[in-house]
Amino acid sequence: MAGYITRRFLGMILLLFLLTLTVFFLFNMLPADPARLSCGKACSPQIVENNRHRLELDIPPIEQYQRFISGLFFGRTYLADTKRPIECEAPCLGYSFLRNSDVLSLITRSVPATFWLAVGGFVVWMAIGLTFGIISALKRGKWQDRTIMGIALLGYSLPSFFIGLVLLFTVVLWLHLLPSPQWVDPFKDPVRFLQTMILPWITIAILNAAFYMRLTRNQVLEVFGDDYIRTARAKGLPERTVVVKHALRAGLTPIVTAAGLDLAYLLGGAIITENIYSLPGLGSLAVNSVIASDLPIITAITLITAAIIIVANLVVDLLYAVIDPRVRIS
Amino acid sequence: MLRSDAWMRRALALGATASLVLAACGGGGPSATPAPPGETTAPGETTGPEPTPGDEAKRGGKVTILSFNEEFDDMDPQRVYTGEDLAFFGATIMRSLTSFVYSEDPEVANTVTGDLAVDAGQPNADATEWSFTLRDGLTWEDGSELTCEDVKYGVSRTFANDVITNGPTYAIAYLDIPGPSDADAEAGWLSAYHGPYDGTGQELFDQAVSCNGKTITFKLKQPIADFNMTVTLGFSPVPESKDTGEQYTTRPFSNGPYKIEEYTTGNGGHLLLTRNENWNPESDPIRKAYPDEWEVLFGIDVKVIDQRIIESQGDDAYTLMYSAVQPENLATVFDSPTQPKPEFADRAVSDFDPYARYYWIDTNKIPNVKHRQAIGVALDREAIRNNSGGEYAGELGDGVIKPNLGNQYAPTGLWDGLLGQPIPDNGDPEYAKQLIAESGEPMPSITWDYPQTPVRDQEAAIVIDSLSKAGINVQANPIPGGQYYGIVFNDDQAHEFGWAGWGPDWPNASTIIGPLFTDEGGWNLSRVHDQDFLDGVKDALTELDPAVQAKKWQDLNKLAMERMYVVPTTFGLTQVIAGTGVAPTYQWAPYGSWAYAEIYRKPAQ
Amino acid sequence: MRQPETLRQDHRVAPEPYLTVNDLRVKFPTEDGLVSAVDGVSFSVTRGRTLAIVGESGSGKSVTALAIMGLLDRKSAQVSGEVWLDNQELLEMSDAAVRKLRGSKMAMIFQDPMSSLHPFYRVGAQLAEAAMIHRKLTRQQARAEAIEMLARVGIPAPKRRVDDYPHQLSGGMRQRVMIAMALINSPALLIADEPTTALDVTVQAQILDLIGQLQSEFNTAVIIITHDLGIVADVADEVAVMYAARIVERASTETLYGSPEMPYTLGLLASIPRMDRERTDRLDPIPGNPPSPLRHPDGCVFHPRCKYKDRVPGERCFTERPELLESERDHLVRCHLPAEERRSIAREVLSTSVGGGAVAVLGGVDGTTSSAQVAPVGGPA
Asked: Can you name the residues that pair with A88 across neighbouring β-strands?
């Protein structure tokens, strides 16, 4: 097992390295010219050239990449040949001249909102998804099942901006049950934090819970036909134990896979939900950077998102081993 | 003051709501007057005209501004260049030598008065030299004295066009400093002086701008009659010791009644301004500084902004919008483009924005004036306005000077016979054919450049459709947002005509006619080089009598229309609404903005 | 156990049955109609004794077992009749009350030990769970019991094996674990549904021996359900043969093998492979197929496959459903043939095919899984 983890970990490092390479050169080949974009109306070729130099776009891509990688580990200095050099300390993910800030601090600032949105939403949707999925499975074919699955289908088919806007307009703007969402640090103002986050969590939960309700229901029902469920009943276990301890555990693998990856994607930023509720997360940072063709930020966010997904994949695989002894002991 | 790349960025940030921008910038509606607070009362309304509270009662509390933007383009006084930003920062943290007057009356508001300076400036006899004397007791936010040198240093930063980008460049255009040498120009410098960071040509700047005690004197290349308006834009002081160059734009040093407490960009970010305890109210006749705090919240969905302010629940009552009312909410708030519904009478405004929309026509590529006229005559301007929002979008324009510019506007009669006969709003293809026939030359095939949005794709179809009825062969060339102006200013890449919009930098048509039709002005998309016209511009610029100057601008506007340098499309209207708890809500004429310096929270009933 | 009143008078009176099934009927409503899976089955088993229920797939033997255990979903199966366990009627009891009896007073082991053990839990935990649900035990006590039970069912190194997962054990071992799990609460009734079908031939006998051995140890009433008459002879005291949801013959093992009467039983006996023949080379297999459970034939349900129906006068086999009647003491037969006729047919068949009635115990496995075709298995499936 230890060997397996080590192998997977090394593989992950290699993958991340290849990823930086790919992302870096991919974005370098984009037609958008950052040097031209940051040039005003009186845009002479010389200004573009100056900008290119400032943005360090006038050196060969391979050297840009080297600087990027070495910046990650040792930091780097922008505008080194001017009177106002800009220090970017390790780990330096780049510097955004459009925002006049190093990329890492921009991202660090965006992480808390995305993190809390993702984790909170995840908890809510898993709780809803698993609970109602199980109820639905137990009441298979009954009105409870049909109602839950109907709602799931609805939640599944509604776009998130619609759910988000409907929630925001009804709960906040019409019924005034909650104050207008405004991001605050959860440790500074926990009440306002919860007031702000409850709707985004529900928005994300509705979207995802629908899928997990169906998945859980189907998994439980599939497992219900298995012989060891009959064994569990023959032992005299109460039905709840049978479902939760035996059926759900056996059907958990695909749920864990999906949940792990969904959480990972969410940690990369939930663009629409962040936008509707004005949350300063990675998703909105990414979108605005794409609109502004702010390459250093786009590169960094792409790398981070990909890294999260790679890590999530590893975690999910390790969770398999935790869940299923047949994986870890052969 | 339209900085079009900023507008482009906004339009892009809006994405699907590009129609909003069009609605806001689209065209001209019936002349709308701001609803004066308390002037009319709906029947059955119990509140009635509110008595204006006393100064003390107005003080205190926080006023919130909801913005769909993710950040301010710039906060650096030498780089701020969009109307609402100029008004907001001008009222809070960024004072200038002079300021426009706060008044509901546009005629009054469009005049300047002393701000940092004791008066509106003293020109010499031919207006080639202007002096401003600073007031006593001016301070920075750290309590240190604001000096003449600080003003001079601030002005010098404009010349550092490698660092101070995107800002107004009137200092470079007007101050008596030689232009760049060929080598400098090659390197991208706009002047022989390279600004305080590089330092090259410092002596040239010192000669042009000098401090004598509290008096700063500017020497100009040519007579500028309204230079005291020019100094509202980019002439604010910056203390050299606090200058952080490129970074200054994220934390400028305040000399106004507020200072920056916290600034975070992006969705959910905010700008929090708190009182600058070192601001001396005695030194400031302009700013009332009623609220204790200002907070700008970024990244709020435009629909949410509308709804929060319409509902005005709780703290949302003390809220202003940094955007315009969305088209879908106009019917909720307004009875007509001129008339808010009674319940919104004291807080909703429909007024001209500063911008005129037009199509430039490249006079090099289409030198025959009859050909240019044929384009204007054939164009279905009615359909174009309807496409961008109808009568709420504005009214059909007859020039590049809008009626809200007071006495500098006079109807040009462009569509009422100036071109030989009246032209209907939906175009006159037959008369256009006739003009082409009279031109004696075949009409060339032409291409219309435009920055692409879904709404403008439809506009392109209208252009093609209406011009082809007159037998003109037109193609449309959509250009990705953000690159539009870069391409159409490039002679090799630009086509024959295209979309544009412009608003004056200050309420003088010098900032319209000059930029639009002279190379020095920097926005000459029409590539106008007619000597008689350029002479006329120079003549008007140096005219010192405002009334005479106004007449000259009127005539030049009319001449530009007759020669069809541009086809005017719409004079844009904008609709805005404030929360129930803030006043006054009139639109301040110089920037078509809220009157930030006078805004207060209404005392609780 | 309550003391029977008769004990004082007559020591030779048989002890009261631990399980008595009276007129058990199970019907499954389906889209195509009502499926009658068990139709009027009655039998009883005493502690220490073994009843074998024998029949083809779909004959209703597994459904009978599940009905006794209360493992049929009450919503999808209509169960009627009486099931008396230790003087308690189970069908009238609440689900919760029956659940408390399951695993404590009655236990069941299933055909496929691989799929019947939860793959994600250690065998020790699965055993301990069974013990702890019915008795107040600490985790340590339960674990100690689990180890002890593993030892008793013949698992080598039980202290180590207790922490194994099912996939780490061989098929025979797993079935031993299943048995250990079933017996950990010393139930008085054990139902073994095809306990050896999925196992290697060499392991089959060991498992049956083990069941027998533990039975005498715990004094358990055992029901063995099988499609294979061959394995029954050594372990069962009594045999009930089921065909199309009904018991068609019931007798002591000795009687059933020595003098079977029902033609279906004869067919089954005749089809037991003999040691001196190739396995596939079956003699006299019963021609035809069991009837559709949706529509049992009128008259004797076996008549479409019966070679001897012509010997019954008139149309009785086609029109009149035969009763399960006592042919001789403790020997019940469901057949229209006269008793004498049946006995002579039996003598005739056995002498030719099985050789003087000597039953070959080690029967082959025909590969069909009898319980797989029995529809719902308790709860939503």
From this structure: A76
Mean pLDDT of B55-71: 89
d(CA C350, CA C348): 6
Please report the ipTM that was assigned to this predicted complex: 0.80
DSSP state of B39: T
Do the chains contact at B264 and A280, CB–CB below 8 Å? yes
Cβ distance C100 to A238 less than 8 Å, yes or no, reads no
Among candidates B163, B188, B489 on the partner chain, residue whose Cβ is nearest the Cβ of A46 = B188
Confidence of residue B77 (pLDDT cuts 50, 70, 90): very high
| Model pLDDT for residues B201-213, shown as the tens digit of each residue | 999 999 999 999 9
- Residues A245 and A229: their CA atoms lie apart, in Å, by 10
Region label for C81, one of left (φ > 0), alpha (ψ between -120 and 50) or beta (otherwise): left
Cα(C65)–Cα(C19) distance, integer angstroms? 12
CB B307 within 8 A of CB A173: yes
pLDDT at C204: 84
Question: What six digits make up the tokens of A330?
Answer: 């052969």
Distances in Å between the Cα of C192 and the Cα atoms of A75, B281, C102, C185 are: 72, 97, 14, 16
Task: Name the CA radius of gyration of chain A, rounded.
Answer: 24
Residues found in chain B: 605
**Both tokens of residue B513?**
């006619």
Phi and psi torsions of B75, nearest 5°: -125, -5
Nearest to B97 by CA among B82, B77, B73: B77
Calculate the CA B498 to chain-centre distance.
20
Q: What are phi and psi of A227, to 5 degrees?
A: -65, -35
Whole-number CA gyration radius for chain B? 24
- Binned at pLDDT 50, 70 and 90, residue B91 comes out as very high
Count CB neighbours of B126 within 10 A. Answer: 12
Closest CA to A246 of A259, A255, A233: A233
Query: What is the structure's pLDDT at A44?
Result: 60
Burial of C42 (0-12, 13-18, 19+ CB in 10 A): middle
Number of DSSP helices (H) and strands (E) in chain C, helices first: 13, 12
How far B361 CA lies from chain A's nearest CA (Å)? Answer: 18
Half-sphere exposure of residue B71, counting CA atoms within 13 Å on the CB side? 21
Q: d(Cα A209, Cα A207) in Å, to the nearest integer?
A: 6
Assess whether chains B and C touch, using the rule of 3 or more C-beta pairs within 8 angstroms. no
Number of residues that make up chain C: 381
Q: Which residue has tokens 């200004």?
A: A47
Of A138, A225, A236, the CB nearest to C102: A236
Angstrom CA distances, C115 to A216, A229, C367, stand at 21, 9, 17
Looking at the DSSP bridge assignments, the partners of residue C326 are C332
Report residue A166: phi and psi, to 5°. -60, -45
| pLDDT of the residue at C372 | 31
The two three-digit tokens of residue B109, written as one number: 């508001």
CB contact burial B523-554 (16+ within 10 A = b; e otherwise): bbbbbbeeeebeebbeebbebeeeeebbbbbb
Among C74, C101, C120, C164, the residue to mutate for chain A (most A Cβ within 10 A)? C120
The percentage of residues in chain A with a pLDDT greater than 90, rounded to a whole number, is: 12
Whether the ω angle into residue B196 lies within 30 degrees of 0, i.e. cis, is: no
Neighbours of chain B (3+ CB pairs under 8 A): A
| Chain A and chain C touch, per 3+ beta carbon pairs within 8 A | yes
| Closest partner CB to B311 (pick from A110, A173, A275) | A173
Start-to-end C-alpha separation, chain B = 39
Who contacts B311 (Cβ-Cβ below 8 Å, separation ≥6)? A173, A174, A176
Would the pTM of this model clear 0.90, i.e. be above it? Answer: no
Q: What are phi and psi of B479, to 5 degrees?
A: -120, 135
What's the rounded Cα separation, in Å, for the pair B543 and B536? 11
* Rounded mean pLDDT, B383-396: 88
